[in-house]
Amino acid sequence: MIHLKTPDELKLMTRAGEIAGQVLDRVIAAAKPGVSTLELDQLAEKLILAAGGESGFKTVSNYAHSICTNINSQVVHGIPKDVSLKNGDILSIDLGATYQGWHSDTAITIPIGDVPPVTKQFLSSGQKALYAGIAQAKVGGRVGDISFAIEQVLAQGKYGIVESLTGHGVGRDLHEEPLIPNLGDAGTGLTLEEGMVVAIEPIYTNGSPEIYLEDDGWTISSENATLAGLFEHTVAITSSGPKILTKRPTETIA
User: Fold this and answer.
1) pTM for the whole thing?
2) To 10 degrees, what angle do helices 37-50 and 7-30 make?
């Protein structure tokens, strides 16, 4: 069942999104060679609490962290560890914050230190795919419009789109209906209505889209790719167009 948010509920979700965006900016700035992903997690939790929010990911059963961190070929749900980042890595940071019980969800994949041009292009494509999907999150549109827009951008780079991992609704729960696939046909799927809030979330690799679950029971990695990308924003569908709730203070949207 899809719950359409009231204006008052959307205000609370907007604050949750602001906290997530602000904290993610700070975590990005701290992600450098020699820093561990566990240190980034501790920083994120401290900042979320200081802003008056709570960790959204800690509401997930048996998950003990405020962020998920995925390095290189890891795709999603990686557990922060006492493992230092290295120059040339790429790191995805997935972060959730709640405010008065309302969730937000956001993610980005960034280079650590110096990376080659082909890696920069890989990351740029994911960011473009996210914004292309967001542009289609309009009242009267269809879920398939978002999916198709994401797929078209990633297909240009011949990247592997992980079909089994999707975006989703957001609200009182971190994951709600509807699912937002990253590939599909325009003009198909659920009609988008004012008051819907969704996490749009391109997930892709530079190789096969096939994935597997690592022994820790959380981390999902690529079977044969060397890099995986994850970009995400929580977006409200409004009469005046898509509203990004988790936009970072330093973010410039082309």
Assistant:
1) 0.97
2) 140
Provide the percentage of residues in the chain whose pLDDT is more than 90.
Answer: 98
Per-residue model confidence as pLDDT tens digits over 180-217: 999 999 999 999 999 999 999 999 999 999 999 999 99
Instruction: Find tokens 């940071």 and name the residue.
Output: 93
Rounded-to-integer distance, Cα 39 and Cα 43, Å: 6
Query: What is the tens place of the pLDDT at every residue in 35-74?
Result: 999 999 999 999 999 999 999 999 999 999 999 999 999 9
SS3 letters across the chain: CCCCCCHHHHHHHHHHHHHHHHHHHHHHHHCCCCCEHHHHHHHHHHHHHHCCCEECHHHCCCCCCCEEEEECCEEECCCCCCCECCCCCEEEEEEEEEECCEEEEEEEEEECCCCCHHHHHHHHHHHHHHHHHHHCCCCCCEHHHHHHHHHHHHHHCCCEECCCCCEEECCCCCCEEEEECCCCCCCCCCECCCCCEEEECCEEECCCCCEEECCCCCCEEECCCCCEEECEEEEEEECCEEEECCCCCCCCCC
The C-alpha atoms of residue 103 and residue 18 are separated, in whole angstroms, by 11
Report pLDDT digits (tens) over 211-224: 999 999 999 999 99
